[in-house]
Automatic annotation (TrEMBL):
Protein topology in the membrane: Multi-pass membrane protein
Keyword Transmembrane on entry: yes
UniProt-annotated location(s): Cell membrane
InterPro entries on file: L-PG_synthase/AglD, TonB_box_CS
Entry keyword annotation includes Transport: no
Annotated organism of origin: Actinoplanes couchii
Keywords assigned by UniProt, alphabetized: Cell membrane, Membrane, Transmembrane, Transmembrane helix
Name of the protein this chain belongs to: Integral membrane protein-like protein
Transmembrane segments: 12-29, 49-65, 123-148, 154-173, 194-219, 267-287
Length: 291
C-alpha cells in the first residue's frame, strides 16, 4: 500500500470518527438544542467584569505556558528573553489550534526557536519533549485533584500511597542515584507552570459562565472542563474545533444548564481561549520570523 493511500485512509477514518462524535453529541442534546435568539439575548447581557476576567485568564494561561518553557531552557543554561519566549508560545498555540498535526508542527517550531537562541541539538530535543510531558503531567495533577475532592474515600487511598512511597524511598535510598535522577528545580518550576496553565484555562471557562449569569457550581464546571480535555487530546480536528464545542455544550446541558445559556458560555469561552489567540499567535510568529 502506498504512502498516499495510507494517508488517505487515515484522513477518511478521522473524518468518520469526527462525524460519529458529532452525531453522538447531537443525539445527547437532540431535545435540548439551544435557541439562537435566546443565546443572542444571553450574550447581550454578558457581565463585562467577568468577561474581562475570562480574557485575563486566557492571556495569563499563555504566560504560564511561556514560563514553563523558559524555566526548562534556563535549567539547561539557555537564556531566552521573556518577550521572545512569549512570542514563540503564542505562535505555538496558534499553530496547534489551526494546522493539521498542529501539535507536531508547534513542537518543530519551538525546536527551531530553541536552536536559534543557542540551545544545542540535544538540549532543544530534550526541552521540546519534556515540555510536552510536563503539560500532560500538569493536566494529570488537575485530574488527581478533582478525584480527591470528589471522592471522600480518595484521601485515605492517597495517604496510603504516599506512605508506601515514603517507605520505599527510605528502604532504597541511595544519594548518588537520587542525585542523578531526582527532578531538578527547573523541571519542578516548569511543572508548576504547567499546572497553573491548565488551571487558568479552566478558570477562563468558570469566568465565562459567571459572565453569562450561570448559577451552576464551579465544581460542576470544573468536571465538565476536565471531561472535555479528554476529547481535546485526540487530534481529530485542528484545535479540537467543533468537537470541543459540541462536547462542552453536551456536558453543560447535561449538568443542568439551560440550553441557550450553555451555548452562550461555550461561544464566549471559545472566543476568548481560541479565536482571540489566533491573531496574537500570528503576531508572535511574525516576531520570531524577523529574528
Amino acid at each position: 500500500m502506498t504512502t498516499t493511500a495510507v494517508k488517505g485512509g487515515r484522513a477518511t477514518l478521522r473524518a468518520v470518527l469526527v462525524l460519529l462524535l458529532l452525531v453522538v453529541a447531537a443525539i445527547a442534546v437532540r431535545d435540548r438544542l439551544p435557541d439562537l435568539g435566546e443565546t443572542v439575548v444571553v450574550l447581550g447581557e454578558v457581565d463585562g467584569w467577568w468577561a474581562t476576567a475570562a480574557v485575563i485568564a486566557a492571556l495569563a494561561s499563555q504566560l504560564a505556558f511561556a514560563e514553563q518553557q523558559r524555566q526548562l531552557l534556563a535549567g539547561a543554561g539557555v537564556a531566552v528573553p521573556v518577550k521572545r519566549v512569549l512570542a514563540m508560545t503564542l505562535g505555538r498555540s496558534a499553530m496547534s489550534m489551526t494546522l493539521p498535526a498542529g501539535s507536531a508542527v508547534s513542537a518543530a517550531f519551538a525546536y527551531r526557536v530553541y536552536r536559534h537562541h543557542g540551545a544545542a541539538t540535544s538540549v532543544a530535543v530534550r526541552v521540546t519533549a519534556v515540555s510536552g510531558v510536563l503539560s500532560l503531567a500538569g493536566l494529570g495533577l488537575l485530574y488527581l485533584a478533582g478525584w480527591l475532592l470528589s471522592t471522600p474515600a480518595a484521601w485515605s487511598w492517597a495517604a496510603l500511597g504516599a506512605a508506601t512511597l515514603g517507605l520505599l524511598a527510605i528502604l532504597f535510598w541511595d544519594k548518588s542515584v537520587m542525585a542523578r535522577h531526582a527532578i531538578g528545580r527547573a523541571e519542578g518550576r516548569a511543572l508548576a507552570a504547567a499546572v497553573i496553565n491548565w488551571a487558568l484555562d479552566m478558570f477562563c471557562l468558570v469566568a465565562a459562565a459567571a459572565a453569562c449569569g450561570v448559577t451552576l457550581g464551579w465544581w460542576q464546571l470544573a468536571l465538565v472542563y476536565l471531561a472535555v480535555q479528554v476529547v481535546r487530546q485526540i487530534p481529530l480536528t485542528p484545535g479540537g474545533l467543533g468537537l470541543i464545542e459540541a462536547s462542552m455544550l453536551t456536558g453543560l446541558v447535561t449538568a443542568g444548564m439551560p440550553e441557550s445559556t450553555a451555548a452562550a458560555v461555550v461561544l464566549l469561552y471559545r472566543l476568548v481561549s481560541f479565536w482571540m489567540i489566533l491573531p496574537l499567535g500570528l503576531t508572535g510568529w511574525m516576531a520570531t520570523r524577523r529574528t
